[in-house]
Design a protein that fits this description.
The structure is a single chain. The chain is α+β, with helices and mostly antiparallel strands. It is about 40% helix and about 20% strand. It has a three-stranded antiparallel β-sheet with strand order 1-2-3. Strands 4-5 form a two-stranded parallel ribbon. Helix 4 (about 80-85) runs antiparallel to helix 5, helix 4 (about 80-85) packs across helix 6 (about 125-140) and helix 5 packs across helix 6. The N and C termini lie far apart (about 65 Å). The model has no long low-confidence stretch (mean pLDDT about 90).
Length: about 150
């Protein structure tokens, strides 16, 4: 059998800033190693993420087919990014549970949970369970959740 018959689609996961995809690392090497023209991906990605604030990290799943065509899915920004932006902090604590870097209200937690609920892999979960994972992430960042 030839390699073409045995070939399977490859999945590439990268974190790309919205509207700022360029054929430089991490996009160029990740796609170039699989024979995909990274410039084609960059143009399509930037067009699809034009409505998002530029620079927001966007997790992207790229499926590369054996014939070197690709399709991709963009997800919502990471929870840590949303929490840090909401709390107005630059980075989390080095000692979670011991140091408090800031506070965040329960209302903000539910706003972040609503954003994260749009992801395909979280659609089946209740908003309360997504909010509880957001609270856990906030605690690991050193954020105190107040009612």
């Amino acid at each position: 059998m030839s390699k073409v018959l045995n070939a399977k689609a490859q999945l590439v996961r990268i974190l790309v800033p919205a509207g700022k995809a360029a054929p430089t690392p991490p996009v160029g090497p990740a796609l170039g190693a699989r024979g995909v023209k990274s410039m084609d991906f960059c143009k399509e990605f930037n067009a699809r993420t034009a409505h998002i604030e530029p620079g927001v990290p966007t997790p992207t799943l790229i499926t590369v087919e054996p014939d070197r065509t690709f399709s991709f899915i963009t997800k919502t920004p990471p929870t840590t990014y949303l929490l840090k932006k909401t709390a107005g902090i630059e980075k989390g604590t080095g000692r979670p549970g011991h140091e408090v870097t800031g506070t965040i209200s329960l209302k903000h937690v539910y706003e972040v949970a609503k954003i994260k609920a749009m992801d395909g892999h979280l659609k089946h979960l209740k908003l309360e369970s997504i909010a509880s994972t957001v609270i856990g992430t906030a605690k690991s960042l050193g954020l105190q959740v107040v009612p």
